[in-house]
Amino acid sequence: MNIDWPLLFAAMGLALVLEGVLYFLFAERMPGLLARLAVQPPKFLRFVGLVAIILGLLIISFGRSLSP
């Protein structure tokens, strides 16, 4: 398996940028959101994680379909 390292690092960097934007824009609300997430049952957190994974894969698939 041949890994495209520059693409992998670019994707990880973009993920950090997008997460950082949320903390930057909603700094006042993040502690409350994180506190509410901390009391959620593991089943709910797994579901949210699964939805995020599926959305991420769909976005990657869509992006790859745009390239020639």
Structure description:
The protein has 68 residues and is mainly alpha-helical. It is built from three helices and no strands. The protein starts with a helix and ends with a helix. The model has no long low-confidence stretch (mean pLDDT 92).
Please summarize what this structure is.
The chain is mostly helical. It is built from three helices and no strands. The chain has helices at 5-25, 30-38, 42-66.
What is the tally of helical segments? 3
> What sequence of helices (H) and strands (E) makes up the elements?
HHH
Low-confidence stretches: none
Q: Indicate the multimeric state.
A: single chain
Mean residue pLDDT: 92
Major sheet details: none
Strand content: under 5%
**Broad structural category:** mainly alpha
First CA to last CA: what distance?
Answer: 22 Å
Shape: extended
Helix content: over 70%
Calculate Rg over CA atoms.
Answer: 16 Å
Name a few traits of the molecule.
mainly alpha; 81% helix
Layout of secondary structure:
Layout: H1 5-25, H2 30-38, H3 42-66
